[in-house]
Amino acid sequence: MADELDTVYALTQVSSLVQGTLERRASEHGISLIQTRLLGTLRDRKPTVNELALLLGLDKSSTSGLVDRAERRCLVRRLPSQIDRRSVRVSLSAEGRTLVEAITADFEADIAAIVEPLDPLERATVAALLSRMLVAHATGRGVELSTIP
Amino acid sequence: MADELDTVYALTQVSSLVQGTLERRASEHGISLIQTRLLGTLRDRKPTVNELALLLGLDKSSTSGLVDRAERRCLVRRLPSQIDRRSVRVSLSAEGRTLVEAITADFEADIAAIVEPLDPLERATVAALLSRMLVAHATGRGVELSTIP
DNA sequence: TATTGTTATACTCTATAACTATA
DNA sequence: TATAGTTATAGAGTATAACAATA
Lengths: 149, 149
What we know:
Two copies of one chain form a homodimer.
Chain A: H1 2-28, H2 33-41, H3 49-56, H4 60-72, E1 76-80, E2 88-92, H5 94-115, H6 120-139
Antiparallel strand pairs in A: 1-2
Helix pairs in contact in A: 1-5, 3-4
The structure holds a DNA duplex.
């Protein structure tokens, strides 16, 4: 039992550290965590506003506003859908892509540095065990491992 | 190299899951993540607004507003400082304590369930390796392992 | 003068409800 | 009618700057 509490505690601490790191990097690049998440979601997709809302777990009105502010900064564009004239496709601009890639690179370097004290075998062990946890958890639901933090 | 990227990825995924879990539990109890963090910080302290701002990593004006809203819901109280009449001590109310403990209990049960697929030895391994990472990271700075997510 | 906390202001982020334009 | 998206509104959360009270 004690080991379970230790594990919960360690996971909680690590999670704060990791999320805090991402938030700090995003902020250094002048955008918020949710804007970073928006850009990250758009790296390999051009979803409609509704799809985006589902992916981000937000209301469609919140998503619309999020896209407004990102568009105002020229980070994303709204493209008219060809098949449904009510619909819109949200797409990353070149500027948005450059930005999200810079943030991601900085963030990943930070986490790599945090992981660095472990030797390669230990890192592989952590990765394997955490992955098993994640897979088990995702399988217990509808499987939805988000792409970006 | 590949193992390092895997580790970064696994840590990122786990962190989103853990923070998302906390946020969902907080929201089920009717408060935000930052309000939960405020209450958590006050569990074993009665800091001044300035100290609280440092602990939460916020500006003192943001902190003042945060405390305003928590006080309006009777979750915290402002006590006049005895030694410095400019100062205020922020203190958890009984109601606030009950609330943060309920959220924490739910949250810890969630994480325990997520960790459950690993056997006790594997859990102990994860806890030990993550703890080493955390200690190494904290030692590299001014040591500041936050108490609550 | 310097510090503690609050307030005024301006923005982002969020949800609910009402709207429009398509379907 | 139903769906896709926007807008109006209201509130939390955040920072900067200016302020009052106290040190």
